């Protein structure tokens, strides 16, 4: 008996990223480069060629970064920064290291394969910073801060969900999303009063912004204002959080909010519902 | 939480944190978490 030969199904999603070979080759080549940049004698032809190929590979990988687990991306940024540095492209190296979240000396260290990072300046980040669009006009900024936040571009203005810890981080995400001229936003919805969800509100709020939160928000925010982050470097030394955020509208039951062409249903979770009583 | 019915997205704040596990028990309760999870399952969002 012979088994029928199956035709390959090219339309079936592939379980691996097509950029995976470039990922491994780029990291391997970057690993052969000097970590501290070009030597005093200058880089050899072979070193430059490795750096060029590592840059081509890792730029390709990062262009397809949505296909990679977040834990693998730090090493890609790290290797790319090392290659830039070898070729004397210091500004690109610095920007790439910023995106890695690993700190300015990371090109000198072994490749880091973890989604977490912590530096004194940035604090704890759960993955490399990235933006993605899970649905049309919905933009999520992940790990520009300890907390994530989202922008929904409606036909009547931008609605933000949460505001991170610090205004500068919110603005950095908006710049990467091409939304830098869209602040202040139309509405800011705060899911709750933790510092990493409200601290950057000043970057989003203007005189016409409607800030919306659950009815229990003011009392909870007052309690939160008396506590500090659990350890010094959780939010980073660069963070400038504002804790005194006063909503314009408080909701005490499930509420439909329509902004332009988009409906938002605001739902009270168990904690928020209890706090409104 | 914020639900966008048209796109099937649900923003859950700190109700669920994929990196750090369950929320802060001191500010909520295990029963409240389970109740909220049941609610979310009933809502059947496409993505959290």
Question: Which helices and strands appear, and what pairs or packs with what?
Answer:
The complex is a heterodimer of chains A (277) and B (48).
Chain A: H1 20-31, H2 45-63, H3 70-86, H4 90-100, E1 117-119, E2 123-125, E3 130-135, E4 138-142, E5 149-154, E6 157-161, H5 167-176, E7 187-189, H6 195-198, E8 210-214, H7 217-225, E9 249-251, E10 255-259, E11 262-266, H8 270-275
Helix pairs in contact in A: 1-2, 1-3, 2-3, 3-4
Chain B: E1 2-4, E2 9-11, H1 30-43
Antiparallel strand pairs in B: 1-2
Overview of this structure, please?
Chain A is an alpha/beta fold and 277 residues long. Chain A is 32% helix and 18% strand. In chain A, helix 5 (167-176) links the parallel strand 6 and strand 7. Chain B has 48 residues and is of the alpha+beta class. The interface between A and B is medium-sized, with 28 and 26 residues. Strand 11 (262-266) of chain A pairs antiparallel with strand 1 (2-4) of chain B, so a sheet runs across the interface.
Number of strands of chain A: 11
Basic shape of chain B: elongated
| Average residue-wise pLDDT of chain A | 87
Helical percentage of chain B = 25-40%
> What fraction strand of chain B?
5-15%
Describe the largest sheet of chain B. Answer: 2 strands, antiparallel
Helix percent band of chain A: 25-40%
Uncertain parts of chain A: 1-13
What is the CA-based Rg of chain B, rounded? 11 Å
The major pleated sheet of chain A works out as: 7 strands, mixed
DSSP helical segment count of chain B: 1
User: SS-based structural class of chain A?
Assistant: alpha/beta
Oligomer: heterodimer
Number of strands of chain B: 2
